[in-house]
Amino acid sequence: MGTPEFPHLGKHCSVSDCRQIDFLPFTCDRCNQVCCLQHRSYTNHGCPNASQNDVTVLICPLCAKGVRLVLDQDPNITWESHVNTDCDPSNYQRATKKRHCSVPGCKEVLNLSNSIRCRDCTKEHCLKHRFGAEHSCQGTKKPESGFPFAGLLSRSQKGKSPQSSSSTSSWWGSGFMNAVSNARASAESGMLKFSNATAQALQKARSGVAEGINSGELVELCIHCQARFSSVSDLIEHVERYHQQSSKPGVNKVIIDVCPKCSRGFRDPVALVEHVERDHGGTSIAK
């Protein structure tokens, strides 16, 4: 057995009926017997320890989970341990009732990543049958025109005689045109009312400002708090009382000169002189 270079090459099969020499023999991991290619499996060479590698799994009828039987342990004990610890009856619906592709013969299980709902027949299909030609779609066809009320018109015409179809379509067309014209007229009238109200509000505001200036009421505006006063002296008193102490140091104070006749304030003395000469007859002496 073997060769002069490799004298220990090859062994005989341990099966008594075989005893064939094999240069690449197999050694059983359970009984450590040497076997040939034909008798390498546990069943063919009758391995007495093959049961140690057996794996038996039972499906629980309550939760649809697999329960593996432990070797050299009573199956009743294994089953009782599973029922008391891992058994969850709510898992039965998720495990048994899985979504499949609606195409006959397709066993693809659908999930969030491989399912598409057809817009025509409203059925879910896998990615392979996502097109209408692949799943023989029998759903309603899309309307050829882009008219948004085509579906409403088609549903309203179901169950009616062919003689009344023309009158119904003309009635729907006239009703739609009337609704459009009424909506347009109401929108134009609303815009007209809005523009008129805006013009009246602006006119009232302008007239109110003019009346305030002519009557000398609340025409002077405080630049700090936006308060209005009837005269410049009241404005100056308000600024000195409430805003002069809170002013930041280093900021130049504004000196306002008052007209002796109309009590109008000016920051520039030259502007005050020009105002007196222009509006009060060229004299700045109070009477």
TrEMBL record:
Keywords: Metal-binding, Zinc, Zinc-finger. Residues 7-55, 95-145 form the AN1-type domain. Residues 151-170 are annotated as: Disordered. The keyword Zinc-finger applies. GO terms for molecular function: zinc ion binding. The keyword Metal-binding applies. One of its GO terms (cellular component) is cytoplasm. InterPro entries: Znf-C2H2_ZFAND2A/B, Znf_AN1, Znf_C2H2_type. Pfam families: zf-AN1 (PF01428), zf-C2H2_ZFAND2 (PF25403). Residues 154-170 have a biased composition (Low complexity). PANTHER family: ARSENITE INDUCUBLE RNA ASSOCIATED PROTEIN AIP-1-RELATED, ZINC FINGER AN1 AND C2H2 DOMAIN-CONTAINING STRESS-ASSOCIATED PROTEIN 11. This is AN1-type domain-containing protein. The lineage of its organism: Eukaryota, Viridiplantae, Streptophyta, Embryophyta, Tracheophyta.
